[in-house]
User: What shape does this take?
Amino acid sequence: MDVTATPTKTFLKRFQYFKPPKLKGTRNSVECESWIDDIEQLFESLDYSDDRRIRFVVHQLHGVAKGWWIAAKTAMENRVSYRIEKGAEFASLQQGQLNIKEYVAKFTSLLKFAPHIVDNDETQADQFINGLNLDIFTLVNAGRPNNFADALNHAKGAEGGILKHKGAQFVPPPARPPQDQ
Assistant: This one.
């Protein structure tokens, strides 16, 4: 055995030693199922992980089957890229010009892409609070809710209070420029 070979190369050579069946692609489902059964049996015998199975089975695809795999892999990679982008969008989400209702809608729609960021209700509340506009953040953070539902209720109340205060506040008309006499 080649001692300079990487573990992956060693496992691949071991896999190829058993002359695994190839799949060129066919419309015959019995042939495809038979190929899958044969490949699975070999992988079971070799006790290979799912990751290694996926990487090695690609070597056995040819023709139409190889074309299918390339298209499927590209679609999966694009999906992963999309999920990464949406996770990053969630991580940097700020309320900005959104009202609380719109912010919550965007927050919850992006939440599913970021389980690594918010793995419990407390971190979800923290992420939500940290994205709030400063005036609402200050009011909500004063009570520092420790779950998302409380944070949302505090934010709604803070926004309502701010809007009510701004609406009730007298705003003087702009000063008129002095006129020449």
Observations:
- The chain has eight helices and no strands.
